[in-house]
């Protein structure tokens, strides 16, 4: 059985075999390799923007919700997803932009948060829904040393989606991925 599988694989001339219709896990494995252009440490799956994988009359359709509406990265991300799927052997995949419900930082996965931290960006603190109720400044731990002795330097960091913070313990500045 496994010998036959290998023969089929080698017949595709090195191209990875495209997942069968209905194989959502195979599509997610491809999307897991597509990184966010603004935060290259985190994949579109870990960012939580891939909302649905489905097939319409045999054609693969992927629903994507932009992180921040009007974010110029949206089209770049959609193109990157399309290119990755075509490269993986999916013919003519459809990328559907889904604006509702709006993306929230709550959708970033635990792995995504770990990678943000490793990249030197503090992940969103707490839940977006609770945050708006409290209306308080979040206590953001330093991604470098973990200290809670941090202060906000500017509302805007390297992009509008982030705020610039400084750690009073290790004195390193860092970006905070704003809660939304
Ligand atoms: Zn620090």
TrEMBL record:
<dbReference type="Pfam" id="PF01883">
    <property type="entry name" value="FeS_assembly_P"/>
</dbReference>
<dbReference type="InterPro" id="IPR011883">
    <property type="entry name" value="PaaD-like"/>
</dbReference>
<dbReference type="InterPro" id="IPR034904">
    <property type="entry name" value="FSCA_dom_sf"/>
</dbReference>
<protein>
    <submittedName>
        <fullName>Phenylacetate-CoA oxygenase subunit PaaJ</fullName>
    </submittedName>
</protein>
<dbReference type="Pfam" id="PF23451">
    <property type="entry name" value="Zn_ribbon_PaaD"/>
</dbReference>
<dbReference type="InterPro" id="IPR052339">
    <property type="entry name" value="Fe-S_Maturation_MIP18"/>
</dbReference>
<feature type="domain" description="PaaD zinc beta ribbon">
    <location>
        <begin position="128"/>
        <end position="178"/>
    </location>
</feature>
<dbReference type="InterPro" id="IPR056572">
    <property type="entry name" value="Zn_ribbon_PaaD"/>
</dbReference>
<dbReference type="InterPro" id="IPR002744">
    <property type="entry name" value="MIP18-like"/>
</dbReference>
<feature type="domain" description="MIP18 family-like">
    <location>
        <begin position="25"/>
        <end position="86"/>
    </location>
</feature>
């Amino acid at each position: 059985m496994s010998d036959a599988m290998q023969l089929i694989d080698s017949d595709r001339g090195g191209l990875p075999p495209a997942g069968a219709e209905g194989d959502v896990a195979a599509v997610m494995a491809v999307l897991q390799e597509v990184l966010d252009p603004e935060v290259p440490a985190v994949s579109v799956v870990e960012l939580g923007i891939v909302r649905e994988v489905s097939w319409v009359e045999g054609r693969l359709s992927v629903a994507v919700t932009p992180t921040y509406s009007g974010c110029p990265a949206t089209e770049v991300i959609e193109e990157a997803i399309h290119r990755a799927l075509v490269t993986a052997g999916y013919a003519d995949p459809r990328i559907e932009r889904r604006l509702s419900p709006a993306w929230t930082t709550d959708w970033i996965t635990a792995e995504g948060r770990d990678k943000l931290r490793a990249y030197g960006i503090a992940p969103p603190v707490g839940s977006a829904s609770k945050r708006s109720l409290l209306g308080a400044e979040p206590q953001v731990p330093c991604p470098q040393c973990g200290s809670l002795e941090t202060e906000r330097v500017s509302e805007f960091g390297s992009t509008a989606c982030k705020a610039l913070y400084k750690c009073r313990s290790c004195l390193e500045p860092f970006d905070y991925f704003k809660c939304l």
